[in-house]
Amino acid sequence: MSLDVQWSTDLVTYFNPTYWGLPADLPYDAWEKEVDADPRRFFDRMLDGAAAAGLRGVELAPAPGGWVNALRAYGSAAAFRHQLQQRGLTLSSSYVLPVLLKSALDADDPLSRRRAEHLLHEDTAHHVQFLREVGCATLVTSTIPRAAFSEIEGVEASSEEFDGPTDPDLMGRVADQFDRLGAVAAREGVHVAIHTDAYSLASRTTDIDELMAQTDPSRVKLCIDAGHIALDGGDPLAVIQAHSRRAPVLHWKDCASHLPPHTLSGPPMVRHDVMIRYFRVMGGGEGIVDWHQWVKILRENGWSGWGVAEIDMSTDPQGEIMAGIDYYNRELSTT
After folding, report:
1. Residue 265 backbone phi and psi in degrees, to 5
2. What is residue 1's predicted lDDT score, i.e. its pLDDT?
3. Dihedral sign of CA atoms 46, 47, 53, 57 in order
4. Residues 39, 88, 92, 50: what is their CA dihedral angle, to the nearest 10 degrees?
5. Which of 22, 74, 199, 281 has the fewest other C-beta atoms within 10 Å?
6. Can you tell me the distance from the alpha carbon of 99 to that of 256, in angstroms, rounded to the nearest whole number?
7. Helix (H, G, I), strand (E, B), or coil: what is residue 256?
């Protein structure tokens, strides 16, 4: 029996500058400015590409491929939905970076925290109103790192801090913030799904177990990313075994090997550029995720939902999206 999986991709798959005829070494902030200057041109081509790849949906990405620029590109949520429908697409989910969430958690006095939470909830309210109008039920976001990275390139962080137990008080505050976000999203019929970012408080099995235990299952879900969990040295199979029933969206990508977090250093996009070198297309023969077992567990758990076939900033987005789905169809659909 085949899984009930609908295929989507995160628009970050289309973020490689070379795909747009831009220099390969274009800094990320310069790439953002290119898209910001004419978001319609970029969104049209990304949506056309997703349709041409035979996908059922797309996941909005972090800026510049997020909901704000989708709104700027087409003028309204209804107009964006029309553009999707014209191509036979649906919005599977919409990702936002946890910048405002981190500000609320980092606030060191009650007044600063209330202000940060107000901004977080206001931004979330606008986002989920957009999603309701587009017909999407899932807002995806991440949580904070398990420990602090070194901002100086070449200087390693503390492996002990990354690998040590999580502070129960911190985990409780994180769970409380997600429950609050879930309540804001629920007003528009949307739920929040926590993406299992490598090195975050939602990547390792024990952390995910604890976070799920402390949050409302009707409002707070998971977006399980096999590649990110494996990159952090975790077990994606254990995570889907325990939590796939709470995961409306799964990211189906692989990685070449574990990359210890403390060895990453420098500003966030410098670290990100290193991380994405380890990600691999599902079924490409260079990854470490056991996809046959992944599918077997999902089938046993009765999972159904969105499968996001994505590779951050792919140099060949169309080819890699279709290669992953073709592997699923050939090797996994009847596993």
Report:
1. -150, 165
2. 62
3. positive
4. -60
5. 22
6. 28
7. coil
